[in-house]
Design goal:
The complex is a heterodimer of chains A (329) and B (265). Chain A is of the alpha/beta class and 329 residues long. Chain A has helices spanning 27-35, 68-75, 98-101, 120-130, 135-149, 164-176, 194-211, 222-228, 246-253, 296-306, 319-328, and strands spanning 9-21, 39-52, 57-61, 83-88, 104-108, 182-186, 214-218, 231-236, 239-244, 256-263, 276-279, 286-292, 309-315. In chain A, helix 4 runs parallel beside helix 6. By secondary structure, chain B is mainly α. In chain B, 34% of the residues are buried. Classes of the chains: A alpha/beta (329), B mainly alpha (265).
Chain lengths: 329, 265
Amino acid sequence: MKTGEQDPVIVDCLSKVYRVAEREGGFKAAVRSFFKRKYLDVKAVHEVSFRISAGEVVGFLGPNGAGKTTTLKMLAGLLHPTSGSAQVLGFKPWERSPAFLRQMSLVMGQRNRLAWDLPAADSFLLNQAVYRLSEAEFHSTLKELDELLDLSPIMRKPVRNLSLGERMKCELAAALLHRPRVLFLDEPTIGLDISAQARIRAFLREYNHRTGATILLTSHYMADVTALCERILIIHHGELKYDGDLSGLSRRIAPYKIIGVDLMNDVRADLNLYGTPVQSADGNGKHRIQVKAGEVAQITARILAELPVLDLTIEDPPIEDVIERAFQE
Amino acid sequence: MTKIYLRLWQMNWAVQWQYRANLMMYLLYGLVSPVVFLSVWRSVAASQGEVSGLTVNDFTTYYLTLLIVDKLTSEVTIHLLAHKVYDGTLSNELLLPIHPVLTHTLVNNLAFKALTFIVLVPIWVMLYLLFRPDFTGVTAVTLLLAVPAVIFGFVINFLLGAVITCFAFWTTRIYAMSEFMYGFLILLGGTFVPLDLLPEFAQRIAQLLPFQLFLYFPIQLVLGRLAFNEILINFALQGVWFVLLALAFVWIWRAGVKRFSAVGA
């Protein structure tokens, strides 16, 4: 990375407001709306600002309708913002200059970009022509992608005959043939089975190491984020709520730990005295309580002293809980 | 750039070929109207001897030529592009560093045209043998001049279709709009009836519109029924409409893409 080179992604007060026609259901309302339309302004993205440095892998989290995909589409140049600015590799994305489009890629999970009735290999060849790749460049990149994604058995079958996991691999390959410097991924593992998800994650990690591409991905799956992203951005109701690493988020939102206590001999004990029960105790004497991070040592000591403990575990709160709390803020 | 078109052509041809049964249906559907008009006008002309100076043979040669000219100049952009605007799949094409309409849509049109034309040929030959028209007006010169007329005719029709389809960025009623325009096209383009048979004022309107530039004009040109100055004027009109529609398309496409909400997250 050259010194003084600009960050590949710079977003400043980016906003997107949609005007949506609104009406109630029913025939009368439909007729009324014919004469007088009621509009609603939906703030899909509101003054979001962040920067991403070259080679970073950043996760973009948020509940449905938070504005993640809208933001991503603006950065990919598919949507014009209502206000604010964004620069990707020094370009204004929505001007869609060919030079910009040749250096970036957007992969949307469950979206089909490959020619449906033809083998993926044909779509690869089209991309070679579209992105003006030389024979040498094309074949070496394809070989590398084949290695990482195991494309050989599937790239000559018509895309419509592939499973979702296989199709996703081909979609990724097609999107990376031109070795983009910035890669946007919108829910890349959605709908895939566990092993397919793991493979895609491993691939993205490896791709980032090999090429230094900057990656911004949105996901609902915690495993995507924990496996790939050093840094996460949380967006909710169109606003950026958090920008930092995952452990920092834990510390800020949910400074608590979960203590799991396994008691001997079916002993019934009231663990409310020690902390907030997280799960109702089942018959075998297993309990889980939530305890403030600062008090863990103290409470653990008390439990060990006062109760017949068979087993005791101290866990971080599940990431899902942390994120959910962040959303509720 | 050529590589892109070659690849697109190869891919589109392969896909169209897979759906060739569908294409046969479209072709046969497209044949119905002209053959019906032909039969009707022939019987009218036969019973009256002629209609406004046009004989049975004039109608036969007109409609047989129409079948070919129409096939060569027609476009199907609305069926290719409008749904992509509505369901958001246009995003896929917008992410590539090429113009979606001037590449994907254009080549798709051409592949469809090529395949259906191949199937049209034997059907046309059968109709020729059935009706035995007298094509004496057609000469090497008229055929040669018809080539640029047909090519430009297609280009104008294509741009017109593209401009109309771009209204899909603003309204969902695009198919209705297109059908509405199609009604004008078959009347004022010369499909429903050769333009000579329309009343004066209608003929003048037809001359101001682009429709006849890809139907009536090339047909009459091939059949040797145009005077030299008429040919020149029509070529000039093709030039004018080409420029107008090209500018209109560039402008409306840019405005439309800006408005595109890339739905289907």
